[in-house]
Amino acid sequence: MSESKSPIPVVDFGRFLNGGKEEKEVVARQIDDAFRNVGFVYLRNHGVGRGMVDRCFDWSKKFFDLPLDTKMLAPHPPGGSHHRGYSAPGLEKVTQHQYDANELAKLRQDMPDFKESFESGNTTDESQPNIWLPEEKLPGFRSFMESFFPECENLVHGILDALSIALKVPEPGLSPTHSESLFQLRILHYPSIGADELRKNKRSRINAHSDFGTLTLLFQDSVGGLEVEDPNKPGNFKAAPAIEDAVLVNIGDLMARWSNDRWRSTVHRVGIPPSINTSTVNPNVNTEGKREEVTVPDRYSIPFFATANMDTIISALPGCWDEESNPKKYEDVTAWGYVQMRMAALYDA
């Protein structure tokens, strides 16, 4: 995709990682502006090697190609308090601030998310131990995922350093609030589906939602389908496709609260890719006069979700509020309490 057509800014993060004080400040301002205006930013030269990203997609495809009964040897536990392991299509239902149990059950029944996922986290996270397949079922999968995690972890801490500079947070900045790296590495597979099913809301890939941690990294394949809402025009979504060698980064609800809405936790969704335009969404008619439905191809993505240490109090950061013109908008919450409330809405207990 041409960068000039993207509504999301593209920033060279290599200038921050390798530059001096002035360059770091320039990049920090660019990221700050992107998060204030859009809530998303593409980062080039981000430090996660392309070879590692490509290998992660390869392992993702190998995993999801396994038979269902094999993948179910590493099952996601009931409920959302232990967010690890494999979730089959329809188990998870992403919503935007919907917590009523009856309404959630109805949404899962009427329009389940048509995707499957596997979650893993920091090997030192005792609160949510990882759930792996038996090694012989997919040799090398676990070791690679455990090696990919710190690559993304380091990038998150680099972005936190940039945000600290943008807000003039005194040393050591925001990074220590994430010192336990209670992060989540997710691999996602959206099976192929008839475009008509998505257009008529018979099924969804992921409904419009905001993330609920602090930061999200997203590596996505070339299929497309991710859309980001225009913060100034609710209901108006624009495509956010993959840009070669760039990672897409967005603000989550916790960081929005922490910044007193200086930074936007922007709603986004996954739907019909732009390559399948409105003229081809309807079933085609072949030369024999028979209807042929357009199929949206399989899509793979790799999000990496960051959140602060469990006991971190999320209260408006200095520089993001004042008593007179910009008072605090939210009550204080702990990072863990807020995330667990949102997680509980994703899964049946």
Kindly describe this structure.
There is one protein chain. With 349 residues, this protein is of the alpha+beta class. The protein has one domain (9-344): B-lactam Antibiotic, Isopenicillin N Synthase, Chain (Jelly Rolls), CATH 2.60.120. Helix content is 30%, strand content 20%. The protein contains 10 helices and 18 strands. It has helices at 14-18, 21-37, 50-64, 68-71, 101-110, 141-167, 195-199, 253-258, 278-281, 335-344, and strands spanning 10-12, 40-44, 85-87, 116-121, 184-190, 193-194, 206-209, 215-220, 226-229, 237-239, 246-251, 268-270, 284-285, 291-292, 295-296, 299-306, 313-314, 333-334. The strands form 5 sheets. The protein has an 8-stranded mixed β-sheet with strand order 1-2-11-8-16-5-4-3. It is globular. It starts with 9 loop residues before the first strand and ends in a 5-residue tail after the last helix.
Secondary-structure element string: EHHEHHEHEHEEHEEEEEHEHEEEEEEH
CATH architecture annotation name: Sandwich
Total helices: the number is: 10
End-to-end gap = 41 Å
| Percent of residues in beta strands | 15-25%
Task: Give the uncertain stretches in residue-range form.
Answer: 278-282
Could you outline the blueprint of secondary structure elements for this entry?
Elements: E1 10-12, H1 14-18, H2 21-37, E2 40-44, H3 50-64, H4 68-71, E3 85-87, H5 101-110, E4 116-121, H6 141-167, E5 184-190, E6 193-194, H7 195-199, E7 206-209, E8 215-220, E9 226-229, E10 237-239, E11 246-251, H8 253-258, E12 268-270, H9 278-281, E13 284-285, E14 291-292, E15 295-296, E16 299-306, E17 313-314, E18 333-334, H10 335-344
Parallel strand pairs: 1-2
Antiparallel strand pairs: 2-11, 3-4, 4-5, 5-16, 6-15, 7-12, 8-11, 8-16, 9-10, 9-12, 13-14, 17-18
Helix pairs in contact: 2-6, 3-6
Keywords: Iron, Metal-binding, Oxidoreductase
Protein name: Fe2OG dioxygenase domain-containing protein
Organism: Lophiotrema nucula
